Amino acid sequence: MNRPLFVRLGLAISGGALLISGCSDADSGGGGAAEGGEAPIAVEAGDEACEVASAELPAGTHTFSVTNNGNQVTEFYVYAEGDRVMGEVENIAPGLTRELIVELAAGDYETACKPGMIGDGIRNALTVTGEAERLTEDELLLQATEDYSRYVQSQTVALTEKNDEFVAAILAGDIPGAKALFPIARTYWERIEPVAEIFGDLDPAIDGREGDQAEGEEFTGWHRLEKDLWVTGDISQSGPIAEKLQSDVAEVVELANTTELSPIQLANGAKELLDEIANGKITRRGGPLFTHRPVGLRGQPRGLGGLRIGAAPRTGGA
């Protein structure tokens, strides 16, 4: 029987007695216990505090129920070593509760609340012990993860090629050429963004909007160069920013092609993308998808390339 990719990812969520969709019921109120599962781990997020109910957990799949008691929009992360993102939930408005589902093997982690959605956040240690059956031990879930990983790898080839051309145009002072290449290269970035967001500070450095930076952080990446191209019209000093973008994208590509991902990570990334679109992708984090250049809605579906893999049945396989 042919199964689309996100049907398979849906099985991962069902297996954990959870539902991931473009619009989560948890977004509009408090999160209760998953049906037939353990109660979520409560997180009380404030403007100056981040209180996590448990500092030690057994290995396996867990749900964090994050309530924003502060006055700023916040987000919540679970980090592995090197700030690798095991899971994140963004745009938690004051007074609201949202849930985050993560699969955690034994090891040392950190949780973080980020009031204002900037900076390193308010962090707490989290220790996970013991063993648990991994979701990828299920044949269908393993196949789903491998399918999506292959898709991401195919897009990184084109991303590297077009981003290198874009950077070369910047370094050559070719404003028309760089403007033409900007949306093309970003198309491939958007297609791998659900995975790229896993890798710590690289995604903000590459794709952060002006104003997303904490005090003392430099505005870099796509949108800094976009501003140089469409606002100032001067890229004579943009070379170091372009070279950093090239280096950061190359690092993301290497990580995307070598890091083993879980079905929950992929499903969380896809859900975050759908949430952004539901909330207005072109106004993400208070700044549009293309901050300074004219854009129509036709640019929006480009980020859904990975989801389309799941929307169409496979032509072969189980």
What does this protein look like?
The protein is of the alpha+beta class. It folds into two domains: 31-133, Sandwich (Immunoglobulin-like); 137-311, A middle domain of Talin 1, CATH 1.20.1420. It has eight helices and nine strands. It has helices at residues 5-15, 139-171, 175-196, 202-207, 222-232, 239-258, 263-278, 305-311, and strands at residues 41-45, 50-52, 56-58, 60-68, 74-79, 85-92, 97-104, 107-113, 122-129. The strands form two sheets. Strands 3-9-8-5-6 form a five-stranded mixed beta sheet. It has a four-stranded mixed beta sheet with strand order 2-1-4-7. α2 (139-171) packs antiparallel against α3 and α3 runs antiparallel to α5 (222-232). It starts with a helix and ends in a 7-residue tail after the last helix. Residues 1-36, 281-289, 294-303 and 308-318 have low confidence and may be disordered.
Which properties best describe this structure?
five-stranded mixed β-sheet, 318 residues, 40% helix, A middle domain of Talin 1, globular, Immunoglobulin-like, alpha+beta, disordered N terminus, four-stranded mixed β-sheet, 2 domains, disordered C terminus
Number of β-strand runs:
9
Major β-sheet annotation: 5 strands, mixed
Helix content: 25-40%
Order of helices and strands: HEEEEEEEEEHHHHHHH
